[in-house]
Amino acid sequence: MLGASTLCFYNEDPQKAAESLAREFPLIEVIVQGNIPLSKTHRMPEVILSLHAPFSDINIASLNSTMRNASIEELEKAVGLAEFFGAGVMTLHPGNLTFHTQKNSEVARKIQISSLGRLASFAEERNIILALENMPRQGLHLGKSPEEMEEIMKMVDSSHLRMTLDIGHASTNGNLSEFMRLKGYIVNMHIHDNRGKDEHLSLGEGIIHFDEFFGQLGKYDGNIVIELVEKRGLRKSKQVVESILGLETKPL
Ligand SMILES: [Zn+2]
Predict the structure, then answer these.
(1) How far is the CA of 30 from the centre of ligand 1 (A)?
(2) What separation in Å is there between the alpha carbon of 252 and the centre of ligand 1?
(3) Domain that includes residue 35, residue range
């Protein structure tokens, strides 16, 4: 199913953002931010919701157990929200290296696997699929390569830990086509364009060949979420994806 992210409504009420997007998309991915909590008062039965967990100030690979446990608790709260809203899938980020762990990333990776195992069990009890997102080239993110993501999937080994393939992020790392071999894990995709760094542009404003990507990918049944920083490109991006996937809705 094709949907849109509330990213382009950043710092606005996510409930209002979701309502606005619901006029044009059957699927909305709501970014839950700590400073603007998603209202618990209004469900939206007319659309399918998926959630994007908080990511600012969150690090499940932190050496500091207080910070790490706080991060896990925030993500568990988001899983609870996903359950409340009937969102079956929740995207989350793989954690970051820090000043200390960038010189010894194995320590951070071990902690990350343990955190993800704990979160996957929590999500399984609530019937939510966690979708771990691959990250862009810039920054101290974990989870930039298909090799790393595959290792995480194998180490955690949970039916409730799958992947969100962020096409724009993979493109900044030059490894988009290599991610195709992980198709079996991918339940969700983020789609946006860029000119080599993570810009979340409207489709067609950057250098990514989306038609080639989907042509090579073949059959895919998961969700595709347009994730732009500006609202103005939403409609055009929707048309681009629909035309590539042959989804054009015929006029009545
Ligand atoms: Zn994304």
Answers:
(1) 12
(2) 34
(3) 2-245
